[in-house]
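Aim 2 progress update. The chain analyzed this quarter is reproduced below.
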Amino acid sequence: MSDGAISQDEIDALLSGVDIGGLGVSGGSSSKNTVASLDLSYIEKFSAETTATFASSLETMTGSEFQVNAPSVENVDRDTVLRKVPEMVVTVISDFSEGLIGDHLFLMAPEFAQKLTSLINKEENAELDDMALSVISEIVSQHTGTEITNLSKTGKLNGLACNPAESVHVPKAMVRFPPENFVLLSYPVSVEGDLFTLWEVISSEVASGMISALGGGSSTNSQPVMPDMNSVNNMMGGMDKNQGMGMMGGMAQPQMGMGNMGGMNMNQGMGMMGGMAQPQMGGGMPMGMNIPNVQSLQYPTLQQGMSGFEQGNIGLIMDVYMEMTVELGRTKKQIKEILGMGEGTIIELDKLAGEPVDILVNHKPIAKGEVVVIDENFGVRVTEILSPIERVSDLH
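Predicted C-alpha coordinates:
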Protein backbone atom coordinates (compact mmCIF):
# COMPACT_ATOMS: atom_id res chain seq x y z
CA MET A 1 0.00 0.00 0.00
CA SER A 2 1.33 3.40 -0.91
CA ASP A 3 1.87 5.88 1.92
CA GLY A 4 1.05 8.80 -0.39
CA ALA A 5 4.69 9.83 -0.92
CA ILE A 6 6.07 10.45 -4.41
CA SER A 7 9.40 8.91 -5.32
CA GLN A 8 12.26 10.86 -6.87
CA ASP A 9 11.68 9.06 -10.19
CA GLU A 10 8.07 10.19 -10.15
CA ILE A 11 9.11 13.77 -9.36
CA ASP A 12 11.59 13.76 -12.27
CA ALA A 13 8.91 12.37 -14.55
CA LEU A 14 6.46 15.07 -13.53
CA LEU A 15 9.02 17.81 -14.16
CA SER A 16 9.75 16.49 -17.63
CA GLY A 17 6.07 16.05 -18.56
CA VAL A 18 5.90 12.24 -18.53
CA ASP A 19 2.61 10.54 -17.70
CA ILE A 20 3.30 8.32 -14.69
CA GLY A 21 0.09 6.38 -14.36
CA GLY A 22 -2.55 8.99 -13.65
CA LEU A 23 -0.24 11.77 -12.46
CA GLY A 24 0.27 13.19 -15.95
CA VAL A 25 -1.32 16.45 -16.93
CA SER A 26 -3.64 15.05 -19.56
CA GLY A 27 -5.31 11.88 -20.69
CA GLY A 28 -3.52 10.03 -23.42
CA SER A 29 -6.17 8.22 -25.41
CA SER A 30 -7.94 11.27 -26.84
CA SER A 31 -4.72 12.87 -28.09
CA LYS A 32 -3.45 9.61 -29.57
CA ASN A 33 -6.75 9.03 -31.36
CA THR A 34 -6.81 12.64 -32.61
CA VAL A 35 -3.36 12.47 -34.20
CA ALA A 36 -3.90 8.97 -35.56
CA SER A 37 -7.05 10.12 -37.36
CA LEU A 38 -5.31 13.06 -39.09
CA ASP A 39 -4.27 12.92 -42.74
CA LEU A 40 -0.65 14.07 -42.35
CA SER A 41 -0.12 14.19 -46.13
CA TYR A 42 -1.57 17.73 -46.11
CA ILE A 43 1.07 18.91 -43.64
CA GLU A 44 3.79 17.05 -45.55
CA LYS A 45 2.86 18.77 -48.81
CA PHE A 46 2.50 22.18 -47.15
CA SER A 47 5.90 21.92 -45.44
CA ALA A 48 7.63 20.78 -48.64
CA GLU A 49 6.47 24.00 -50.30
CA THR A 50 8.26 26.09 -47.64
CA THR A 51 11.70 24.49 -48.00
CA ALA A 52 12.83 26.60 -50.97
CA THR A 53 12.00 29.82 -49.14
CA PHE A 54 13.69 28.51 -45.99
CA ALA A 55 16.89 27.67 -47.90
CA SER A 56 16.88 31.07 -49.60
CA SER A 57 16.49 32.81 -46.24
CA LEU A 58 19.43 30.86 -44.79
CA GLU A 59 21.59 31.73 -47.80
CA THR A 60 20.74 35.42 -47.47
CA MET A 61 21.62 35.49 -43.77
CA THR A 62 24.81 33.40 -43.99
CA GLY A 63 26.17 33.93 -47.50
CA SER A 64 26.54 30.15 -47.91
CA GLU A 65 24.60 27.73 -50.10
CA PHE A 66 21.98 25.64 -48.29
CA GLN A 67 19.84 22.73 -49.37
CA VAL A 68 16.69 22.01 -47.39
CA ASN A 69 14.81 18.87 -48.43
CA ALA A 70 11.14 18.08 -47.89
CA PRO A 71 10.55 16.89 -44.33
CA SER A 72 9.28 13.54 -43.17
CA VAL A 73 6.07 13.90 -41.14
CA GLU A 74 5.05 11.38 -38.51
CA ASN A 75 2.80 10.83 -35.51
CA VAL A 76 5.05 10.42 -32.45
CA ASP A 77 5.16 10.67 -28.68
CA ARG A 78 7.77 12.18 -26.37
CA ASP A 79 9.80 8.98 -25.99
CA THR A 80 10.12 8.61 -29.76
CA VAL A 81 11.54 12.12 -30.14
CA LEU A 82 13.97 11.65 -27.24
CA ARG A 83 15.44 8.66 -29.05
CA LYS A 84 16.00 10.77 -32.19
CA VAL A 85 17.64 13.90 -30.76
CA PRO A 86 21.04 14.28 -29.02
CA GLU A 87 21.43 14.63 -25.26
CA MET A 88 21.80 18.43 -25.49
CA VAL A 89 19.58 20.38 -27.88
CA VAL A 90 18.87 23.96 -28.86
CA THR A 91 15.12 24.42 -28.51
CA VAL A 92 13.22 27.32 -30.07
CA ILE A 93 9.70 27.79 -28.72
CA SER A 94 7.25 29.74 -30.88
CA ASP A 95 3.75 28.65 -29.87
CA PHE A 96 0.75 29.56 -32.00
CA SER A 97 -1.21 32.26 -30.18
CA GLU A 98 -3.81 33.57 -32.67
CA GLY A 99 -5.89 31.81 -35.30
CA LEU A 100 -4.46 28.51 -34.08
CA ILE A 101 -3.71 27.84 -30.43
CA GLY A 102 -1.17 25.24 -29.37
CA ASP A 103 2.40 24.09 -28.92
CA HIS A 104 4.94 24.81 -31.66
CA LEU A 105 8.70 24.36 -31.25
CA PHE A 106 11.89 23.53 -33.12
CA LEU A 107 14.86 21.36 -32.10
CA MET A 108 18.39 21.20 -33.46
CA ALA A 109 21.71 19.74 -32.42
CA PRO A 110 24.14 22.21 -30.81
CA GLU A 111 26.57 21.58 -33.68
CA PHE A 112 23.95 22.78 -36.18
CA ALA A 113 23.27 25.91 -34.11
CA GLN A 114 27.01 26.61 -33.89
CA LYS A 115 27.39 26.18 -37.65
CA LEU A 116 24.60 28.67 -38.36
CA THR A 117 25.96 31.18 -35.85
CA SER A 118 29.52 30.89 -37.17
CA LEU A 119 28.38 31.50 -40.75
CA ILE A 120 26.29 34.52 -39.82
CA ASN A 121 28.87 36.09 -37.48
CA LYS A 122 31.79 35.17 -39.78
CA GLU A 123 33.73 33.44 -37.01
CA GLU A 124 34.98 29.93 -36.37
CA ASN A 125 33.41 27.72 -33.67
CA ALA A 126 31.04 30.34 -32.31
CA GLU A 127 29.95 29.80 -28.72
CA LEU A 128 26.29 29.15 -27.92
CA ASP A 129 25.89 32.26 -25.78
CA ASP A 130 22.88 34.57 -25.55
CA MET A 131 23.88 36.35 -28.74
CA ALA A 132 24.10 33.06 -30.65
CA LEU A 133 20.71 31.93 -29.33
CA SER A 134 19.15 35.21 -30.48
CA VAL A 135 20.55 34.50 -33.96
CA ILE A 136 18.89 31.07 -33.92
CA SER A 137 15.62 32.67 -32.80
CA GLU A 138 15.76 35.04 -35.77
CA ILE A 139 16.35 32.14 -38.19
CA VAL A 140 13.32 30.28 -36.83
CA SER A 141 11.23 33.47 -36.89
CA GLN A 142 11.93 33.79 -40.61
CA HIS A 143 10.68 30.24 -41.20
CA THR A 144 7.57 30.57 -39.02
CA GLY A 145 6.80 33.81 -40.83
CA THR A 146 6.77 31.88 -44.11
CA GLU A 147 4.49 29.24 -42.61
CA ILE A 148 2.07 31.87 -41.30
CA THR A 149 2.02 33.69 -44.64
CA ASN A 150 1.27 30.51 -46.59
CA LEU A 151 -1.41 29.36 -44.13
CA SER A 152 -3.06 32.79 -44.18
CA LYS A 153 -3.38 32.56 -47.97
CA THR A 154 -5.97 29.82 -47.49
CA GLY A 155 -8.37 32.43 -46.13
CA LYS A 156 -9.58 30.05 -43.42
CA LEU A 157 -7.41 31.31 -40.55
CA ASN A 158 -7.86 34.91 -39.45
CA GLY A 159 -5.15 36.79 -37.60
CA LEU A 160 -2.78 33.82 -37.50
CA ALA A 161 0.23 34.55 -35.27
CA CYS A 162 2.96 32.92 -33.18
CA ASN A 163 4.60 34.07 -29.98
CA PRO A 164 8.08 35.57 -30.43
CA ALA A 165 10.67 32.82 -30.85
CA GLU A 166 12.70 32.08 -27.72
CA SER A 167 15.80 29.84 -27.84
CA VAL A 168 17.38 27.83 -25.02
CA HIS A 169 20.27 25.35 -24.87
CA VAL A 170 19.17 22.57 -22.52
CA PRO A 171 19.26 18.80 -21.96
CA LYS A 172 16.61 17.05 -24.04
CA ALA A 173 14.82 15.81 -20.91
CA MET A 174 13.98 19.43 -20.03
CA VAL A 175 12.25 20.20 -23.33
CA ARG A 176 8.55 20.94 -22.97
CA PHE A 177 6.82 18.65 -25.46
CA PRO A 178 3.06 18.58 -26.07
CA PRO A 179 1.25 16.03 -23.87
CA GLU A 180 0.88 12.56 -25.37
CA ASN A 181 1.03 12.22 -29.19
CA PHE A 182 1.91 15.06 -31.55
CA VAL A 183 3.25 15.66 -35.07
CA LEU A 184 7.00 15.72 -35.79
CA LEU A 185 8.54 17.15 -38.97
CA SER A 186 12.20 16.31 -39.73
CA TYR A 187 13.92 18.64 -42.23
CA PRO A 188 17.24 17.41 -43.71
CA VAL A 189 19.52 20.47 -44.08
CA SER A 190 22.94 20.42 -45.78
CA VAL A 191 25.56 23.18 -45.93
CA GLU A 192 29.23 23.06 -46.95
CA GLY A 193 29.19 19.26 -47.05
CA ASP A 194 27.68 18.88 -43.56
CA LEU A 195 24.26 17.28 -43.06
CA PHE A 196 22.01 18.31 -40.16
CA THR A 197 18.39 17.85 -39.12
CA LEU A 198 15.92 20.48 -38.00
CA TRP A 199 12.95 19.03 -36.10
CA GLU A 200 9.63 20.86 -35.89
CA VAL A 201 7.02 19.85 -33.31
CA ILE A 202 3.35 20.84 -33.51
CA SER A 203 0.59 19.76 -31.15
CA SER A 204 -2.38 17.71 -32.28
CA GLU A 205 -4.67 20.77 -31.99
CA VAL A 206 -2.45 22.86 -34.28
CA ALA A 207 -2.02 19.99 -36.74
CA SER A 208 -5.77 19.48 -36.90
CA GLY A 209 -6.37 23.19 -37.56
CA MET A 210 -3.68 23.29 -40.26
CA ILE A 211 -5.13 20.29 -42.07
CA SER A 212 -8.61 21.79 -41.93
CA ALA A 213 -7.33 25.10 -43.36
CA LEU A 214 -5.49 23.24 -46.13
CA GLY A 215 -8.70 21.53 -47.23
CA GLY A 216 -8.23 18.26 -45.44
CA GLY A 217 -11.58 18.12 -43.68
CA SER A 218 -13.06 19.55 -40.54
CA SER A 219 -10.93 20.05 -37.48
CA THR A 220 -11.60 17.67 -34.63
CA ASN A 221 -11.90 20.72 -32.38
CA SER A 222 -14.69 22.36 -34.36
CA GLN A 223 -17.96 23.10 -32.59
CA PRO A 224 -20.75 20.53 -32.98
CA VAL A 225 -23.63 21.43 -35.27
CA MET A 226 -26.81 22.00 -33.28
CA PRO A 227 -30.03 20.46 -34.67
CA ASP A 228 -32.79 22.73 -35.91
CA MET A 229 -35.69 22.49 -33.47
CA ASN A 230 -38.32 22.61 -36.22
CA SER A 231 -36.74 19.50 -37.70
CA VAL A 232 -36.70 17.90 -34.26
CA ASN A 233 -40.40 18.65 -33.77
CA ASN A 234 -41.19 17.25 -37.21
CA MET A 235 -39.28 14.10 -36.42
CA MET A 236 -41.15 13.77 -33.15
CA GLY A 237 -44.50 14.48 -34.74
CA GLY A 238 -45.29 10.82 -35.16
CA MET A 239 -44.35 9.93 -31.62
CA ASP A 240 -46.82 9.37 -28.85
CA LYS A 241 -46.57 12.47 -26.66
CA ASN A 242 -47.36 10.32 -23.62
CA GLN A 243 -44.23 8.29 -24.13
CA GLY A 244 -42.43 10.80 -21.93
CA MET A 245 -39.28 10.83 -24.07
CA GLY A 246 -37.13 13.96 -24.66
CA MET A 247 -34.35 14.45 -27.15
CA MET A 248 -30.97 15.45 -25.78
CA GLY A 249 -27.82 15.46 -27.95
CA GLY A 250 -29.64 13.37 -30.61
CA MET A 251 -30.40 10.49 -28.14
CA ALA A 252 -33.69 9.72 -26.46
CA GLN A 253 -33.62 10.40 -22.71
CA PRO A 254 -36.31 9.23 -20.27
CA GLN A 255 -38.40 11.98 -18.71
CA MET A 256 -38.77 12.37 -14.96
CA GLY A 257 -42.14 13.02 -13.43
CA MET A 258 -43.77 14.04 -16.71
CA GLY A 259 -46.87 11.84 -16.66
CA ASN A 260 -49.54 12.47 -19.31
CA MET A 261 -48.73 15.60 -21.36
CA GLY A 262 -52.10 15.65 -23.01
CA GLY A 263 -52.35 18.32 -25.68
CA MET A 264 -49.30 20.20 -24.44
CA ASN A 265 -46.92 21.33 -27.14
CA MET A 266 -43.83 19.20 -27.02
CA ASN A 267 -41.61 22.27 -26.73
CA GLN A 268 -43.38 23.25 -23.51
CA GLY A 269 -42.06 20.11 -21.89
CA MET A 270 -38.53 20.69 -22.98
CA GLY A 271 -35.85 22.89 -21.39
CA MET A 272 -33.50 24.45 -23.89
CA MET A 273 -29.84 25.12 -23.21
CA GLY A 274 -27.47 25.97 -26.08
CA GLY A 275 -30.08 24.78 -28.63
CA MET A 276 -30.32 21.28 -27.10
CA ALA A 277 -33.34 19.84 -25.34
CA GLN A 278 -32.99 19.04 -21.65
CA PRO A 279 -35.19 16.59 -19.71
CA GLN A 280 -37.76 18.17 -17.42
CA MET A 281 -38.68 17.47 -13.84
CA GLY A 282 -42.28 17.50 -12.70
CA GLY A 283 -43.49 21.11 -12.49
CA GLY A 284 -41.78 22.11 -15.72
CA MET A 285 -38.50 23.22 -14.11
CA PRO A 286 -35.27 22.32 -15.98
CA MET A 287 -33.34 19.52 -14.40
CA GLY A 288 -29.85 20.33 -13.04
CA MET A 289 -28.12 23.59 -12.32
CA ASN A 290 -29.35 27.07 -13.14
CA ILE A 291 -28.41 28.11 -16.67
CA PRO A 292 -25.97 31.08 -16.53
CA ASN A 293 -26.46 34.07 -18.76
CA VAL A 294 -23.43 33.81 -21.06
CA GLN A 295 -22.57 36.77 -23.26
CA SER A 296 -19.74 37.37 -25.69
CA LEU A 297 -17.04 39.78 -24.59
CA GLN A 298 -17.20 42.95 -26.66
CA TYR A 299 -13.92 44.72 -27.29
CA PRO A 300 -13.88 48.46 -28.02
CA THR A 301 -12.80 49.50 -31.50
CA LEU A 302 -9.27 50.87 -31.51
CA GLN A 303 -8.74 54.05 -33.48
CA GLN A 304 -5.56 55.80 -34.40
CA GLY A 305 -4.93 59.39 -33.43
CA MET A 306 -5.77 61.37 -30.33
CA SER A 307 -9.18 61.36 -28.70
CA GLY A 308 -11.19 64.53 -28.30
CA PHE A 309 -10.27 64.58 -24.62
CA GLU A 310 -6.55 64.44 -25.42
CA GLN A 311 -6.89 67.12 -28.08
CA GLY A 312 -8.71 69.29 -25.61
CA ASN A 313 -5.89 68.95 -23.08
CA ILE A 314 -3.30 69.95 -25.67
CA GLY A 315 -5.45 72.91 -26.62
CA LEU A 316 -5.00 74.30 -23.10
CA ILE A 317 -1.28 74.87 -23.68
CA MET A 318 -1.32 75.95 -27.33
CA ASP A 319 -0.42 79.56 -26.43
CA VAL A 320 2.51 78.63 -24.15
CA TYR A 321 5.90 79.88 -25.42
CA MET A 322 8.84 77.48 -25.73
CA GLU A 323 12.44 78.32 -26.52
CA MET A 324 13.56 77.18 -29.99
CA THR A 325 17.23 77.35 -30.93
CA VAL A 326 19.40 76.32 -33.85
CA GLU A 327 22.74 74.72 -33.03
CA LEU A 328 25.50 75.11 -35.63
CA GLY A 329 27.80 72.72 -33.79
CA ARG A 330 29.73 72.04 -30.62
CA THR A 331 33.30 71.70 -29.43
CA LYS A 332 35.25 71.21 -26.22
CA LYS A 333 38.04 73.51 -25.07
CA GLN A 334 40.38 73.48 -22.12
CA ILE A 335 39.91 76.22 -19.55
CA LYS A 336 43.21 77.83 -20.49
CA GLU A 337 42.09 77.99 -24.12
CA ILE A 338 38.81 79.61 -23.20
CA LEU A 339 40.57 82.20 -21.02
CA GLY A 340 42.93 82.96 -23.91
CA MET A 341 40.13 83.82 -26.35
CA GLY A 342 39.90 87.30 -27.74
CA GLU A 343 38.51 89.24 -30.67
CA GLY A 344 39.24 87.46 -33.94
CA THR A 345 39.64 84.01 -32.36
CA ILE A 346 38.24 81.32 -34.63
CA ILE A 347 36.40 78.42 -32.93
CA GLU A 348 36.24 75.23 -34.95
CA LEU A 349 32.97 73.32 -34.54
CA ASP A 350 32.31 69.60 -34.90
CA LYS A 351 30.27 69.97 -38.11
CA LEU A 352 31.28 70.43 -41.70
CA ALA A 353 30.26 73.41 -43.78
CA GLY A 354 26.87 72.78 -45.35
CA GLU A 355 26.01 69.96 -42.94
CA PRO A 356 22.45 70.10 -41.52
CA VAL A 357 22.13 71.99 -38.25
CA ASP A 358 20.18 70.80 -35.20
CA ILE A 359 16.87 72.42 -34.24
CA LEU A 360 16.15 72.24 -30.51
CA VAL A 361 13.08 73.00 -28.40
CA ASN A 362 13.88 73.60 -24.75
CA HIS A 363 17.36 72.24 -25.50
CA LYS A 364 15.99 68.93 -26.83
CA PRO A 365 16.64 68.15 -30.55
CA ILE A 366 13.47 67.66 -32.57
CA ALA A 367 14.57 68.27 -36.17
CA LYS A 368 17.38 69.13 -38.59
CA GLY A 369 17.58 71.90 -41.14
CA GLU A 370 19.75 73.99 -43.43
CA VAL A 371 20.76 77.59 -42.86
CA VAL A 372 19.26 80.18 -45.23
CA VAL A 373 19.47 83.96 -45.52
CA ILE A 374 16.21 85.93 -45.67
CA ASP A 375 16.54 89.70 -46.24
CA GLU A 376 19.90 89.89 -44.44
CA ASN A 377 18.54 87.73 -41.58
CA PHE A 378 19.59 84.18 -40.90
CA GLY A 379 16.95 81.46 -40.85
CA VAL A 380 16.72 77.68 -41.04
CA ARG A 381 14.71 75.52 -43.39
CA VAL A 382 13.48 72.28 -41.78
CA THR A 383 14.70 69.29 -43.79
CA GLU A 384 14.09 66.40 -41.38
CA ILE A 385 11.90 65.69 -38.33
CA LEU A 386 13.57 63.31 -35.89
CA SER A 387 11.72 60.07 -35.23
CA PRO A 388 10.44 59.38 -31.67
CA ILE A 389 13.17 56.75 -31.23
CA GLU A 390 15.89 59.26 -32.12
CA ARG A 391 14.40 61.82 -29.76
CA VAL A 392 14.29 59.33 -26.89
CA SER A 393 17.87 58.24 -27.53
CA ASP A 394 19.00 61.86 -27.32
CA LEU A 395 17.47 62.12 -23.85
CA HIS A 396 19.84 59.49 -22.43
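The chain has twelve helices and 19 strands. Residues 310 and 316 are 10 Å apart (CA to CA). These observations will guide the mutagenesis experiments scheduled for the next reporting period.
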